[in-house]
Write a structure and sequence with these properties.
By secondary structure, the chain is an alpha+beta fold. It contains six helices and 16 strands. β11 (209-212) and β12 form a beta hairpin.
């Protein structure tokens, strides 16, 4: 499973136990809605999905590929347009449950698929309850049985098309380089990073990993035009830095913790 998809599922799991405080409100519920671009008090299952993917993308230092919305039919239309809407689930998909709302049959509830066992799929979903309501009280883990009322958004397939993207990397207030995105991760040239931070940059030939001041950096190296690149998230972690990602500007800022 792609790193971003896995990170989104982990983020969703971290929210189990979140509960509303008032109808479609509460500190975390309001954060979900605001991140998706709508005000507190609105239904929030779709906003929860977007918030999780957005958090995961920021943690991975990559663009958020998911549609920004708090409205399930918008997810359905976007998935159809991108040809990632399926009738059978896979772990990592976003499910859509269809039903009649105000006389209209449409996508009306959503969440993440965490596992599949035959026709049964496990989920983590917001704005639900133990009975699976689309107007529930919090974030729950559930099991559902696939049928005609469900469709599945395989949004991870869109990550294959992101390799041409680049993000600008800033260390402190200084621009360092443009980073290519490969396999859902922003890659930074190892030597330029190490030298910018004042490390003596070396190489462990046997382990095929870089050395900063003689210490190995745990990461996966990608060669681009003969130059060693590594995920900027790994490099920042090894240096004790945190990353802030601006997906709109396609910028990553590395700062001291």
């Amino acid at each position: 499973m792609k790193e971003l998809v896995q990170r989104a599922l982990e983020t969703a799991k971290s929210q189990l136990g979140v509960r509303e405080e008032g109808e479609n409100r509460g500190p975390r519920v309001s954060e979900y809605l605001t991140t998706a671009g709508v005000s507190p008090g609105n239904p929030w299952c779709a906003a929860f999905v977007y918030w999780c993917v957005n958090k995961a993308a920021a943690a991975e230092g990559v663009p958020n590929p998911f549609v920004r919305t708090a409205y399930c039919p918008t997810i359905a239309a976007w998935a159809r347009d991108n040809e990632v809407l399926h009738s059978t689930p896979q772990a990592g998909d976003v499910f859509l449950r269809y039903g009649t709302v105000a006389g209209e049959y449409r996508a009306s509830h959503t969440g993440f698929v965490t596992a599949v066992d035959g026709s049964v799929f496990s989920t983590i979903e917001g704005n639900t309850n133990i009975d699976g309501s689309r107007e529930g009280i919090g974030v729950f883990a559930r099991k559902r049985v696939n049928g005609n009322a469900y469709r599945f958004v395989r949004w991870g397939d869109l990550l294959k098309e992101r390799d041409e993207l680049t993000y600008k990397l800033y260390v402190g207030d200084h621009f360092l380089c443009d980073m290519p995105v490969r396999g859902g991760r922003s890659l930074c040239p190892v030597r330029a990073w190490g030298q910018r931070l004042g490390f003596e940059v070396g190489w462990n030939q046997e382990e095929q990993v870089p050395l900063f001041d003689g210490h190995e950096v745990t990461t996966q190296i990608t060669l681009i035009d003969g130059q060693a690149y590594a995920p900027v998230r790994d490099l920042a972690t090894s240096a004790g830095l945190r990353l802030r990602v601006d997906n709109d500007k396609r910028e990553v800022h590395a700062t001291r913790i």
